[in-house]
User: Fold this.
Amino acid sequence: MHHAQIDRLSGQCSIIHRLDGRTKLLTTLLLSVLVIAQPPTSVSSLFYFAVWPFALLVLGLVPMKFVVKQVILVSPFIIFFAVWSLFYGKQPTTVTFGPWVWQTTDGVLRFCAILGKFAITVTSLIALVATTPFNELLGAMSKLGMPGILVVQLGFLYRYIFLFVDRGSHIIRARRMRTLRYLGFKKELKTVSSMIGNLLITSIDSASNISLAMQARGFNGNFPSTSKSRFGSIDIWFTAVFAVYMIIVIFLTRASA
Amino acid sequence: MPNAITVKNFSYSYPDGTDALSDISLAIEHGEKVGLIGPNGAGKSTILLAINMFIKGTGLIEVDGIEAVQKNARNIRTVINSVLQDPDEQLFMPTLYDDVAFGPLNMGLSNEDVDKRTIDALSKVGLGGMEKKMPHHISAGQKRAAAIATVLSMEPKVITMDEPDTSLDPANRKKLIGLLSSLDQTLVIATCSMNFAADLCKRVILVDGGKIIADGPAEKIMTDTQLMESHGLEVPMRYYRRPADQ
Assistant:
């Protein structure tokens, strides 16, 4: 399960794992904003930005095969949207790469830029979650001023999505065991609706029991934190390197524009 | 010294008007380990919900001499706590440490005290060194133990448990009985497992149809074959005598 593998990777010990969650979260957000803010047909500049998440993955001992698999897994959604730019951008454009020169359209460049931006931002996010235990990430969000209710929701989502998927797969299995023939669209739709309803009802039931468990332990609406993370010298060095890198990248992208 | 739990003439009906509990009265002393036994739908879990102040009915409930009414809710929470049937519903935080520390932090304890109580509770249930583990990465037996640790860290005088041996294999069930036997707290355990109740409790309360049918020493009640079978229960193995022995 990806969930389990990300948990295992985030529990490793590397220089990136030792960084405070806030440092990694802020630099990832900043990198993502800068990548998204690149001009819509700028493809070459994205290569400079790609160096950072790649370096994090290497230093954070995250296997590239795992990252590539995850990026491919979520890519159909973005490809579906990006492909439309091929039909709308018909303006001829000349592209040069070293000694090579070829003709294309701005739609193709937009398509490549969207995919490039997607790949870099998703890779950065994977680097973040694969080098930061989720509880530390939640602690970092909380310390950076994210509303408590959102942090709690994220925590619950992470904790219970696993169970939810498990329950869903049990219901599907139960149905398959008793499905011997196709019953027609209407009946099949009715069955699927009942299954979804069942899942919803058991989830509501679980939610009310979780609420009881929280009340029993004195929950009063505020989530107390036990996070012991501190912003240390390693974080200062990391931030400084990131800042220098960003300045260089911005300089290079402007020079090449 | 007040009783750990006193219930006098307590009744509760579901919102649709169905009677769940009718005129229940019982008293449990400090340090007792009491089994609430009965068939499915007898009202065992509802009694636990009532004494934990999760439902409101008519009649009187006192926990350690404190009346279970809304104005005393905070005090009651420090005296009594409950372990739910499904540990996945009890363990809702990202790590075991966070989960076990949740209660003490809500009690307003200092970070040092929270840390000490959390480490102690996890060690007591045999999960020392697993503080950073995530609840979805541990076995069913460990989840059960962790769920108990979440309650132990609050150091309540009374602990209620709903079907604590559900989905445990014999080895983990034995471990759980050992752990619960070692606790000093008053335990009230609702269970359909007669063997579990017989192995752990010296006193049982037989509940059926929302009423208390029998209350007394486990051996006396659980060896009454006619009584047990008439309420859909069975004589546990430890009290079972072959016809030739009788």
